[in-house]
Write a structure and sequence with these properties.
- With 230 residues, the chain is mainly alpha-helical.
- It has one domain (6-225).
- The protein contains 10 helices and 4 strands.
- A two-stranded antiparallel ribbon has the order 1-2. A two-stranded parallel ribbon has the order 3-4.
- Strand 1 and strand 2 form a beta hairpin.
- Helix 1 packs across helix 7 (165-171).
- The chain is globular and about 50 Å long.
Length: 230
């Protein structure tokens, strides 16, 4: 059997994605209720365990650079609703003059996510907490609040998804997650839009308790290895 070209694979994926969008996601018990039960059952104890780490990181951030310890940014959530996504601040407050804007614009044009290696806007403590994914621990509060889920598509800022309304409409049928298919399998190669579509589509199509549990377990070695984190 002849293998499909990349263009044909992308076209097939796009067709399947649009068909899934037209049909809507299956309203299973897990999607409606079970996912929220899992988020509370695991999210609350994880937040309690993470609080001392968050507190230490917050103090170090405040001691080593001016500005607040926490940072939040509007992200696109369930049904397209914007919510403040919380993180520990890893960049300097006066970041704009620390980078060549031409370099930044070129990077933005190349990928969905902008994560420059050796980014001069990131403080030394910011590099440490990013490497260990500590900067994302405050998102556990988003999970407890109900803005996010432990597992789901990566929460994106509005301008990233604005050019792709079909993809955005599909992603918005579930809550974004701290971890997920894309975050686990493409952490060291997360700049590709087609890659994001592929992983999001696979997760949305197969979302269930066992899928979420598997992705949560796989997150541990991925984060521990610090692969793709900068």
């Amino acid at each position: 059997m002849e293998e499909l070209s990349e263009e044909e694979k992308h076209k097939q994926l796009e067709t399947e994605l649009l068909a899934l969008l037209d049909q809507g996601l299956t309203p299973t018990f897990y999607r409606r209720t079970g996912k929220r039960i899992l988020d509370i059952a695991l999210g609350v104890p994880l937040l309690i365990l993470a609080t001392p780490i968050i507190a230490i990181a917050w103090v170090l951030i405040r001691l080593t650079s001016s500005g607040p310890g926490f940072f939040y940014q509007d992200r696109v959530g369930l049904n397209g609703r914007l919510f403040p996504c919380y993180k520990l601040r890893s960049m300097y407050v006066d970041q704009d003059h620390r980078i060549d804007m031409n370099v930044l614009q070129k990077s933005e044009a190349e990928g969905v996510l902008v994560k420059l290696e050796n980014d001069p806007r990131v403080s030394w403590i910011g590099k440490v907490i990013r490497k260990a994914s500590i900067d994302e621990l405050p998102q556990l509060w988003n999970v407890v609040k109900g803005d996010m889920s432990l597992v789901g598509p990566r929460p994106l800022v509005p301008h990233m998804v604005a050019p792709y309304p079909d993809l955005n409409a599909l992603r918005c049928q579930v809550k974004p997650g701290i971890t997920g298919e894309w975050q686990v399998k493409a952490r060291d190669d997360n700049r590709s839009l087609s890659g994001m579509v592929k992983h999001d589509f696979r997760y949305l199509k197969n979302c269930n308790f066992w899928t979420d549990l598997r992705l949560l377990v796989r997150t541990i070695p991925v984060v521990s290895s610090t692969r793709g984190a900068h």
